Amino acid sequence: MEKVILEIVNKIDDKFALAAILFFSIFLLINKRKVKRYVDRAKIILKKENKIKHLDCHDVFSTMSRVRNEVSHMKFYTHGEYDRVKSKMCFDFTRHKTHSCAKYMKEIILREDIDYMNPQKLKNMVISYQQRMHEDYVNEIRKDWVGKGLEIHHIEYVVRLFEKFRYDVVNSFEHRIMSIFGSEFHEDNFERMLAVFEMWSMGIDLLPRDMNTTFESLNGTFKNIKY
User: Fold this and answer.
1) How far is Cα 1 from Cα 125, in angstroms, rounded to an integer?
2) H-helix or E-strand spanning residue 77
3) What pLDDT score does 203 carry?
4) How many Cβ atoms sit within 10 Å of the Cβ of residue 222?
5) Residue 171 buriedness (CB in 10 A; 0-12 / 13-18 / 19+)
6) Residue 214: which of 91, 64, 67, 79 has the closest Cα?
7) How does pLDDT run across 103-157, given as a tens digit for each residue?
8) Which of 90, 119, 173, 219 could cross-link to 215 by cystine, CB 3.0-4.6 Å?
9) Are 8 and 19 a contacting pair, CB within 8 Å?
10) Distance between CA atoms of residues 227 and 215, nearest Å
11) What's the whole-number mean pLDDT along residues 164-176?
């Protein structure tokens, strides 16, 4: 690029035009990353290209299937005896959580405006969707367990217990989102969302650990209910 600029300079006689070209060239050299970002964004808008939709093949979705299968084989005990209800509750909790996460992850990547959305707006949207995932799975668990005879205060206790053991993961999510959207290493929204999906995938990978810790901490309250 520098050679091209020198050749152009040598062929221009008009001092004002030369000064303008030099100023513009220096601006491009100093800000070439930002200029590239805007050019790429313009291309996406003009082509209506949706790169982020390809994240529907991200392994976070296969990770959810693997995690559900892993949790389905967990067995919990109360006073040394196999507790069928507690084991089934753990699987249902995992099933609702992963279903809610998958639903909103699919929804966010299929938005038509997401590839060229303002990064600050995208960050706020990611945080909002993450909150919606949480609210949705909690609502689904409540409906399921109330229908199976659990009392609401027992349901709230299990949810709070899980969130207590899950706190470090959720807290890490918040830090990582701020880091991803505050970094210049991610040149476009596809790279930002890829980093977010990698983060979410890590969180799903840790789900069996947190489910096991949660339900191992429960006593035999639910052992004899008709579940």
Assistant:
1) 38
2) strand 77-78
3) 96
4) 22
5) exposed
6) 91
7) 999 999 999 889 989 999 999 999 999 999 999 999 999 999 999 989 999 999 9
8) 90
9) no
10) 16
11) 95
Nearest to 194 by CA among 207, 182, 205, 181: 181
Q: Write down how long the chain is.
A: 227
Report H helices in the chain: 2-10, 15-30, 32-47, 60-72, 84-109, 119-147, 152-181, 189-205, 207-216
CB neighbours of residue 212 within 10 Å: 16
Amino acid at 208: P
Q: Which amino acid is at 49?
A: E
From 152, 153, 164, 150, select the one nearest 85 (Cα to Cα): 150
Chain position carrying tokens 């805007």: 38
For 126-133, which contacts have Cβ atoms below 8 Å and span 24 or more sequence positions? 126/177, 126/193, 126/196, 127/177, 129/104, 129/105, 130/173, 130/177, 132/104, 133/100, 133/101, 133/104
Residue identified by tokens 């053991």 is: 165
Exposed/middle/buried for residue 47 (C-beta within 10 Å: 0-12, 13-18, 19+): exposed
Which residue's entry shows tokens 């929204």?
189
What residue has token string 């979410």?
A: 200
What is the dihedral sign for C-alpha 170, 175, 181, 185? negative
Token pair 């990770």 is found at 63
